[in-house]
Prior knowledge:
Chain A has one domain. Chain A contains 3 helices and no strands. Chain A has helices spanning 3-26, 30-55, 59-85. In chain A, helix 1 packs antiparallel against helix 2 (30-55) and helix 2 (30-55) packs antiparallel against helix 3 (59-85). In chain B, helix 2 packs antiparallel against helix 3 (61-97). In chain B, 36% of the residues are buried. By secondary structure, chain B is mostly helical. The longest helix of chain B is centred in the last third of the chain and has 37 residues, at 61-97. Chain B has 3 helices and no strands. Chains A and B meet through helix 1, helix 2 and helix 3 of A and helix 1, helix 2 and helix 3 of B.
Amino acid sequence: MIGWLIDIAIIWHAGLILVLMIYAARAQRLVDRIVAFDALSIVFVVALSALAIRRQEAHYLDIALVVAMLGFVQTLAAARLVERRGLR
Amino acid sequence: MSIAVTVAIGLIVIAATTILTLSVIGLVRIPETYVKVHAAAKAVALCPLLVLVAVLPGGDIGFILRAVIVGALMLLTAPVAAHAIVRLRMRQETERAEEPEP
């Protein structure tokens, strides 16, 4: 009954991911790209949770867990790498 | 599933999507990195929790367990990631400030 609303929300999240990818490609500093990819992983987790609500399927939450872990590790690793190498 | 639970799930999804949209707008439009991280980190910690609360009435124990694990992971890791980014930016700025002037 509420399905169409969650469908629209998932499509909206896909649009947000697209906006973040375009911003990450056009950003001036590496820090801004790291921020954009961090937010992208979170938007992806929210979209997968909404998909789990829509389909009533618990396996999407497994994917959300993996994406959340990877987003955290990618942010820390990228920040450490940029800091070590002295990049901009 | 009763009508009240359905309406609550719809409202939670609308609220989470709105907060996330405002956060992404802030992230894209704000030029300063610290303020950008501030705009991103708030919604980023809040939205998955909202949506995972909406997952909970779904029923069985697998849903609830997975939702609690993902929510706890989000709540633990989002401030650490924001802190790493802000520390990186701070190091870059102090590095630039400490360069010898010609």
